[in-house]
Amino acid sequence: MLNCKLRTNTLKINMMKNIAIIMTVVVGLFAFAKADAQKNNDRDQFEVQVDGLGCPFCAYGLEKKFKEFKGIKDVKIDIKTGDFSFSYPADKALSMDAMVQQVVKAGYTPNVAKITRSNGKIEQNAGKKQEALGALTAGKLKVYGVCGMCKARIEKAIGDMAGVKTATWDVDTKMLAISYDKTAVTMDAINKQAAAVGHDTDAVKASSKTYNALPGCCRYRD
Amino acid sequence: MKKLISSICALVVLVACKNETAIPENRTWEFDKVIPLDNVNPIGIAIDGEAIYLSDGDNNRVVKVDANGKILLEYDGFERPMHIDYGKPVAQITDKLASSALNEAALFVPEYGRDSIAVITGKKRRYLVLNDSLDAPAAISVYENEIALADFYNHRILYYNGTEWISFGTEGKELGMFYYPTDVQITKDAIYVADAYNNRGQVFDKKGKVIAAFGKEQKMNAATGIYVTATEIYLTDFEHKRVLVFNKDYSLKQELKTNVNKPTDVIVVDGKLLITDYGNGTLVQYKSVPVATTTAAKE
What we know:
Chain A is of the alpha+beta class.
């Protein structure tokens, strides 16, 4: 009888101990989650879809170079989808323009970009404005480049110009096929725009500074 | 005892591999098969006996696969592992607390995103001790007591001759200069480099003096991987989806294109040539056949 009572008491004590341990763990987890949430609340989340990430050496380079920014965290890049994301301290208020420019500076072509601020506010970059175009003319010009990253950059730079409806570049032939409204944009402006992003045409050459800023895999000059 | 025997066997195979397999001149490469991989985008390849190691940069891991591509083992937690190698050079390694001499064969994994070289022995992960800083190491080669590293963003090769480290190469297009070196291999007499965006291979003596450059005439676009046997040199042409096979006099011998999409590395073992295909996430196997019985040379 005494033994039985003792055993019951021991069981009760063990159960109390277990409950105390579980409670401690649960409280600890809550505290950790709260601290984590607090930490996340202090950071803005950046997402940008980048074109032309075919080469892992360059793509990992983009990731690596962004890691150099003080305070950047959670840097992720998915080469297949081109999804690039990171978080940055909210008090530094990194703007959409600055982020997009940084991607461009690294030699990449940003498409859709989104910032989720620490206060929940969402910002998105503006796409190309829909414009009413007159009669379209088909045109072709030679634009120099060598890879998928070049293709993304050329098509984005020309395709985003006012007056241009479509722009498709062929990596093998180096020919850019465009459809455009002659009354809104000239071939001269298109040549200049290609050169402005580092790609020579037969009519306009990119400056050395712009050319040298291209990633290694995009250098097409002998 | 069993372990000792298998270790000796592995070492014999390893030494045999490192002794630069000779591919006779009257033989050529013929497409054999594609080895599918389970969600692996391979960049580098190394062999230890029958085990094949692949670096999977996209997934930050190295996997050990069998001849059918089945994953046997996974080492994760790397930061963008690149061109790997297996061997037992003279090297100091550290576990970040203390350093010691490496006293067994190891898998060497350059971590592009962490600027360090991981050294894997069994379940242990330690790091190569270097007195110089790297910026995106893209490849390592170990040969007997020697080590060479391709230091991508510094446009140079770091080479340890068993006694001291030397560095050679600077950024540029001239002979002996590099424009993003992505792979390196030491042989008995020379050091071969895949000079990625100069679109060529380069050969150096062991004092860092340039001997030759090759591959320019083939109009490559991103020479991402290199491998050398006693009689042939293999250079991957990433954007043009092919592997070029050169004779040791640097003349082009063959172009391998069948089922190749974005190749990054090559290795030759037991009369088979394995290509890591980053684009398709596969290994592509070619076999050595007598010239007379094949049309592969015309590929």
